[in-house]
Please model this.
Amino acid sequence: MKLSPESRKFIEDLRLYLFSTGKSDNEIEDIVAELEDHLWEAEKRGKSIIDIIGNSPKEYMEQFANEMKFDIKQWTGYGAMMILGVFAFVLMGDVINRDTDYSWFELIGYPLLTVCFLLLLMKTMKFLSGVRKKSVGWIVLLLISAIQIGGFVLLIWLDNRYGETVIHFNSTGNIVLFCLSALIFIGGSIWSKSLVLIVIPIFLYLPEYVLMFTPLKEDLQMVISHLISLLGILIYLFFVNRKENRFE
Model:
């Protein structure tokens, strides 16, 4: 079934809009599949996407959204997985760097920031579903990324300046933390049916860990590990995107 570029764009915008308003993935896919059939039949009869949805795509999307319930179970799962994922990344990095002392700033700040970013992400996706220019979408995503990074940088600064250690892990505790982080990554990959949460930690932390055993200077180790991590993640995402486009 080959839809016009305009219809495919609307389908993707609708999927993004419904997802950003907290609807069930299964319901979204059912509606999208039904709408694709409807649009295909209409286009065969010479009608355009405007003839089907009118001049206000956003109002058409809102009609679907208003008829669907918020899937609290699914989004509770997303929130929990994001919080666990953030902790897993932080803990694994800290274990490798032998820095497993934690303050209340970290214990409370990371979950709080994650929930705030999840809500911000939902609002952003809802906004992007109505954006026609890709350049605007990229600018918005860059701003959101900058806000996220800034939030974590601010948390680290506050922790370094005012934080006092309330939890300290010894060598045995570090092993437990590392295994716990690995289990979270594996569990998250199974839950999301994706290898992203396994591949990205490997590229982020394995080069750094291996280079620690080389005679290279610490600054050079950091530069090389960052380059390997960045290139590895970009290459992986390139092949994932290429694979997805092949099946469209």
